[in-house]
Design goal:
31% helix
């Protein structure tokens, strides 16, 4: 574990349309070419995952989903499974304990 770099993640919440998101992601990717002491991760809204993933390709910046439903598929409106996130190019996901998420 000593060799692992700290992870710095930007969770965009429900902010950003395609043009703004791409501009921000390209800026982060450009800066990622400089030496860093941490891993970088961007977690954009689900509607931007594929486009942002393409913009980050080869940059070393990770792509993550803002949440991940525990079931692999089903009638869960608005939810994404781990398989769906991986298919969109994600390597990470922000996960909230399901029991706690229902309280908010």
């Amino acid at each position: 574990m000593a060799d692992r770099k700290p992870l710095v993640a930007g969770n965009w919440k429900m902010n950003g349309l395609r043009a703004d998101g791409l501009a921000l992601a390209r800026g982060v990717a450009e800066r990622a070419s400089e030496p860093h002491r941490c891993e970088l991760l961007i977690c954009p809204p689900a509607t931007l995952l594929t486009a942002i993933g393409e913009a980050l390709a080869g940059s070393g910046v990770g792509l993550g989903g803002q949440d991940c439903h525990p079931e692999p598929k089903g009638a869960f409106t608005g939810c994404l499974s781990a398989e769906m996130l991986k298919d969109a190019g994600c390597s990470h996901a922000i996960v909230v304990r399901w029991r706690d998420a229902r309280r908010t």
